[in-house]
Request: fold
Amino acid sequence: MVRALALALALVVLHPAGAAHATHDDYGPGAVVLHDELGSRDRVTVVFPEDVSHADAEARVREHASARDLPVEDVEVVDNSGPDTVRVRVTTLVGEGTGLRSTVSAGVAEEWGALSDSGEVHLSLPRWATAVGEVDRHDGDIVLDGEDVSWNQPWWPMALPLVLLVALPVLVFLVLRAFARRQVASPEDPAVRVHRLRVAAMVAMLVAMGGVVAGALLGGRDGAETLLLLTVPDAPAWLQTVAGLGLALLPFWLVIAALLLAVVPADRELRETEQTTGGAFRETGRALLVFGLIGLLVGAGGGAAMAWDTRAYLVFLPLVMLLLAVLGPMLMSRMMRTRALPEPHRSRLLDALQEHDLRVRDLRLIDTRGGKVVNAAISGVLPQLRYVFITDHALQVMSDDELEAVIAHEAGHGKGHHLLVKAGVVVLPVVLLLGAAWLGRDQLEDVVAAVPLWAVLTVLLAVLPVLVLVLQGVVGIALEKRADDYAVRTVGADRLAAALETLAEANVVKRRTGWLWNLLQQHPGLEGRIQRLRTSPSREHATR
Reply:
């Protein structure tokens, strides 16, 4: 769960977007937009028709700046994804600020106004900034009409990073530690107490992710960049990006650290394991690092695709997801520091897979480092890159028949192409959503303009993820039952039921769980699953 949330978070925070850096796709050729920000990263955007070459557009802007002796630090020419235009973005001084207040003089507007077909110049302010006095506006931007314009930046976006970095992790730690201590002291069944602890940990991660994303949307990332610019006015652009991404990722990592500090000791006592907090930190840190790097690469590639053409993103995203599905097993093998199974287990289980006519690259052993976890998984859609993973504790507590039943279950996933089905459940809704948004972009702009921002964000960041989670859960539960049915046909229901009994006892798993937990785990409850096997009409008719 930690790894999935880490990847999701990385994809969200690294996505190439930001309200403080709007692209102004609604502006057509001949428009000039000033972007004033606290610090030294002011910009000017000049819009040209699409038939103007990049070289000509850049030359016109440079000649204009040179003729008026305007300082220009950087020039970037891009095609636009909205109206067919070419845009030149110039890094240059727009406003002069003191503290959280800045003023754009009428002279700056006049200097750049000569590049505007209408002579009109617009001013774009950072997110949450408010103009002083009455001003004319165009789609949220200020129309400069020959007078100076002053604006104020509120203080709370800069306080938000401190809240996310300090208050959120401390709160999670204190609440979880108190809850964990209560579970350790409770006289109830250990499986019930461990289940409560796992539910609390999952809730804490979901709350943490929601808090971090909400903080970024509310201006936390902008607040971090503003703090940097106020303390280091000449900070380079790359340092601003690092500060913004650090704010987005660091709170989540700190919450995970707080979670491990609070939960691992209690879990070790309840399950009587040898798992150390330091070991949990190393394993989780490795997973977060791997998924963070993946998110960085995906975000950078997605940003390049989006900047080139929005339609390219519709191709880029499914291709990346497919690539991750293909290379995922190798990444998992490296991330979890797996090793070859010891003999004779390796030969016997490879022979079992061969009898199931399922090709795999290898069987790998996961060292739980005293965690006493019994589990197995199959990963990979291509036989050449397909792995079956099994934990070391499974080899210690399961009989040969139970291990072969577990392998039969995983073979059922492989032969049924369940990994492709689950990947499709993720990819297809995303592609359909992006495609529909592109095809109906004109109507979508009207809808977004009429609907409050909070409603749009709720749909994108709450409703849609919940729907995808529910769909994944329903599909995942159905696929688990299909894999069980395959194992029943090949090795018999009794052997698989015995393996699940051993798994439940070794992992201290609560057997009767609610539907919501089952959906999130994408597995049916163990009690119902075992009962289904015990009452299977084909339980004695295995083919092996």
Remarks:
- The radius of gyration is 28 Å.
- Confidence is low (pLDDT under 50) at residues 1-24.
